[in-house]
Design goal:
- The protein is built from twelve helices and twelve strands.
- The protein has 326 residues and is of the alpha/beta class.
- It has an eight-stranded mixed beta sheet, sandwiched between helices. Strands 2-1-4-5 form a four-stranded antiparallel beta sheet, covered by helices on one side.
């Protein structure tokens, strides 16, 4: 569609290990519209981060390999570009905030060194201009006294401040799309709210498209325009946030909702999703969720369900839960 900034079609990403082939992504179809926030949610091991790394072609090779599909950014297939062309896309057009700022920042270089490197490389500014841009970016993300703090090393920042530095680095080249992979991991609740508000405000001010990856359904509900639910390497449900949160169709999405406590209910027995995410070297036959699903039947065990659209709502299930209201 013309308004789509990013389209993923039939994406398959595998990891070739000594134990066997890990089918991390098995035919992902997804699109993100210009200027929106798309939230990706699901348990650990469902393929959310691998999807993000595949978009940027940062899947470690070996053992990982994108074996099939298309990733269209502004109509250009990123999988067909040379590595030098991809380096121009990364940072300039698509930036990523990684899960752990502690490991993403180099401890032996100042924040100034690390921000300037990105800005000089992608923006073509000289050292003085890049330093000024670095200070402006630190100020933009709310770091006090940025002229002085730019000379500090990562260990001199708190966890929340390190995450702000990472966001400043990701936004320093005015990217069209920002991928935020668990941006609030290991942060306390107050700092989480500050970081999320900052991303939301920057998105509104700069018009940046955001792909937000998280386990937190509350964050997804607050931040996202559309939501994709992933399970075991597949996109099992997609729709606007209101529909996914109030009228989900897939049993997995419903189970995720039922596992979240609600402050409006004093006495509530939380739902439990039995079992664990399957080993993707030996994924289940048929629907990958069927061993954990309360509605599983023989067809679920034998055949992979075909995805279908119910209006603007996509679901991949043989027994979609019609009329579910949460």
């Amino acid at each position: 569609m013309a308004d789509n900034l990013l389209e993923i079609k039939g994406l398959k990403t595998y990891f070739y290990t000594e134990d066997g082939i890990v089918r991390a992504l098995e035919g992902i179809d997804l699109h993100i519209e210009q200027g929106e926030t798309l939230g990706l949610v699901g348990e650990s091991g469902c393929g959310k981060t691998v999807t993000a790394l595949s978009v940027l072609r940062l899947v470690p090779d070996p053992p990982g390999k994108i074996i099939e599909g298309e990733i269209l950014f502004e109509g250009v297939n990123l999988l067909a570009l040379s590595e030098s062309d991809m380096r121009q896309i990364r940072g300039n057009d698509i930036s990523m905030i990684f899960q752990d700022p502690q490991s993403a920042l180099n401890p032996v270089f100042t924040v100034d060194n690390q921000l300037r490197e990105v800005i000089e490389l992608h923006q073509g500014l000289d050292k003085k201009e890049a330093r000024q841009k670095a200070i402006e970016m630190l100020d933009l993300v709310g770091i006090p006294d940025p002229e002085a703090r730019v000379e500090d090393y990562p260990h001199q920042f708190s966890g929340g401040m390190k995450q702000r530095v990472m966001i400043a680095m990701a936004l320093s080249c005015n990217p069209k799309m920002l991928i935020a992979d668990e941006p609030t991991t290991n942060l306390d609740v107050t700092v989480q709210a500050q970081v999320l508000d900052m991303i939301n405000n920057l998105r509104k001010e700069l018009g940046t498209t955001v792909l937000l990856i998280t386990h937190n359904l509350g964050v997804i509900a607050e931040m996202s325009d559309h939501v994709g639910v992933m399970y075991a390497g597949r996109l099992v449900e997609y729709g606007d946030a209101d529909t996914i949160f109030h009228a989900p169709l897939h049993p997995y999405t419903i189970a995720l909702h039922e596992a979240v406590p609600r402050v409006t209910e004093k006495k509530q027995k939380l739902g439990v999703i039995k079992g664990v995410v399957p080993n993707l070297i030996y994924p289940p036959s048929g629907c990958r969720f069927h061993p954990r699903c309360d509605f599983s039947t023989e067809v679920c065990e034998k055949e992979q369900p075909k995805g279908e659209w119910v209006g603007d709502h996509y679901v991949e299930c043989w027994h979609r839960r019609e009329g579910t209201k949460l």
